[in-house]
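User: Run a structure prediction on this.
Assistant: Running it now.
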Amino acid sequence: MKKPIISGDTITIPSSQEYLTDVDVFIEGILRGYGADESVIADVAISVSELVNNAILHGNRSSDVKTVKVTIARNSKDISITVVDEGQGFNPDDIEDPLADENLLKEAGRGIFIVRSLMDDVDIYEDNGGTAIKITKSIG
């Protein structure tokens, strides 16, 4: 796969940070179409960018034969976005607390913490051997 593929409510990208902007444009466009408030769009965009970046770097280890899939869905009051990688998976309980004294000066390790602070719900689970993270945010 050499370029993003959009199919309805899903965008699939190669495991390269080069395509982060494509995901951002895709998600923000759909959210604006839903009439979401700009503050919601900003929170979701930050969260999705963080999750896709993690999927590329940590999940797929930037492998050019793996992809990241991002799907958006909506019900009457919420939007949910699921980010799926093709990596080895991980245990979310193993994530170190970024607020612990020994982690405060580390340059990495805050992504999931930030996502959890911006979203109403974050669910991390295994998906065909990789990791799926579903985030949910109220849109009114």
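The radius of gyration is 15 Å.
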